[in-house]
Amino acid sequence: MQTIGILGGGQLARMLVLAGAPLGFRFLVVDSAPDACAAQVAPLLRADWRDFDKLAEFARAIDVATFDFENVPAETAHWLTEHTRVFPNPRALAISQDRLAEKSLFREIGLDTPAFAAVDNRDDLARAVERIGTPAILKTRRLGYDGKGQFRLKSPADIDAAWSTLNGAPSILEAFVPFERELSVIAVRSREGEFRTYPLTQNWHADGILSVSLAPAPHSDVLAPIAIAHARRIAEEIDYVGTFALELFVRDGKLLGNEMAPRVHNSGHWTIEGAPASQFENHVRAVLGLPLGDTTALGVNVMLNWVGELPAATPILAEPRAHWHDYGKSPRAGRKVGHATICAANTAEMHERLARIGKALGREQQVEPVLAVLG
Ligand code: ATP
Ligand code: MG
Ligand code: MG
């Protein structure tokens, strides 16, 4: 029986455990928080990322290490490679931790990005605003997630406010893209180099946080093979092993790379019930060097994210093929506390089901953009 160690004990770790347990694998989670949500389903070793005595204990107890949290310090990831097998590799992790390295990689492999410039001081920012123009977004190179560590500049008059809000952290300025839509590729590559992707997912964000996903993304016949080829090139370039997400904007019908996540991803949660093998199961398979599972989509799938607090579960539980996920976290503004996945045979059935659910939950606004594209 093999044991998989997970650095980070959030809901992603929890879902990895729930996917890997039926295959006979054991898990050990490292997190400094006593109430880490994965501790509900797996043993927890409490340690912070530089507690190398505890991490040595962790490494001895596992067969392979992986991540639920993408911002584990590079030093820790490197140290671990000397004590156990680690997937994805520390270089892949380091690139996706840094927006500058990440966007540079996208360009190298031929994926366009929004115009961007590195910003290390206030003068850089002023020059970048001159070159890129406004509106623009200043993003910290590191540690940002769920739209945190970002400042939207409407005009050059916002330069000082942007610089002081981000506390002078090394950043990049990006052109604001008035995109037609946002897509993500959920991809997985195994230790043997086998590569698979799920059908493209279309995503809607609210306040910088994922709100709704729809898969397969409609009207994507032309873009899907291009997006998938980009994901494959990225994975091969950095010898990536495991599940990852590539976030894309569609502007004037063309793809622009936003960022990648070196882990299972919120926009792939629909694969738990909407695909024969979920992104979580495939991550487990990939890091253990096993054959990958089937990534086709079963019908049409919508994921609704619960941010801040959970709504009533009953309207979801009352629907056929609707699935409820409560991460067991205490409610807090801006915190991801659960999600629901609704599966249907076709778009007409999805439209009907989703409209009913939106109304019953009083979440008409959240489901509205999906209903619009389902037609
Ligand atoms: P995540 O939780 O996905 O890791 P993050 O904090 O890393 O989020 P981004 O993905 O860069 O942040 O941005 C969050 C959202 O903000 C994007 O999905 C998109 O909706 C919007 N956004 C980000 N950058 C741009 C841009 N250059 N132009 C327009 N919208 C943008
Ligand atoms: Mg991100
Ligand atoms: Mg993002």
Automatic annotation (TrEMBL):
Query: Which PROSITE patterns does the entry mention?
Result: ATP_GRASP
What is the enzyme's main class?
ligase
Q: Which residue numbers delimit the ATP-grasp domain?
A: 103-288
The UniProt keyword set, sorted, is: ATP-binding, Ligase, Nucleotide-binding, Purine biosynthesis
Q: Give the top-rank taxon of the lineage listed in the UniProt record for this protein.
A: Bacteria
Its UniProt pathway annotation is:
Purine metabolism; IMP biosynthesis via de novo pathway; 5-amino-1-(5-phospho-D-ribosyl)imidazole-4-carboxylate from 5-amino-1-(5-phospho-D-ribosyl)imidazole (N5-CAIR route): step 1/2
Q: Name one Pfam family in it.
A: PurK_C
Spell out the reaction equation it catalyses: 5-amino-1-(5-phospho-beta-D-ribosyl)imidazole + hydrogencarbonate + ATP = 5-carboxyamino-1-(5-phospho-D-ribosyl)imidazole + ADP + phosphate + 2 H(+)
Indicate which residues the UniProt annotation says bind ATP.
99, 139, 144-150, 174-177, 182, 205, 258-259
Which InterPro entries does the entry mention?
Answer: ATP-grasp, ATP-grasp_carboxylate-amine, ATP_grasp_subdomain_1, PreATP-grasp_dom_sf, PurK, PurK_C, PurT/PurK_preATP-grasp, Rudment_hybrid_motif
Membership in a protein family: Belongs to the PurK/PurT family.
- Alphabetical list of NCBIfam families matching this protein: PRK06019.1-2, PRK06019.1-5, purK
Quote the subunit structure annotation.
Answer: Homodimer.
Return the protein name. N5-carboxyaminoimidazole ribonucleotide synthase
Species for this entry:
Dokdonella soli
